[in-house]
Amino acid sequence: MVQGHRGQHPRHHPGGLRRPASTRSGAASAPDAPPCNKAEIVDLAPILASDSGPGLWKVTHGDHVLWILGTLSPLPRDADWLSREVENAVAQAQEVIEAPSYEIEPNVSIFGKLFLLPAAMRARRNPDGAQLRDVVPAAEYARWRRLKARHLGSDRGVERYRPIFAAGTLYKEALEDAGLTRPSPAWCASPGRAACG
Question: Ranges of Basic residues compositional bias (predicted)?
Answer without folding.
Answer: 1-16
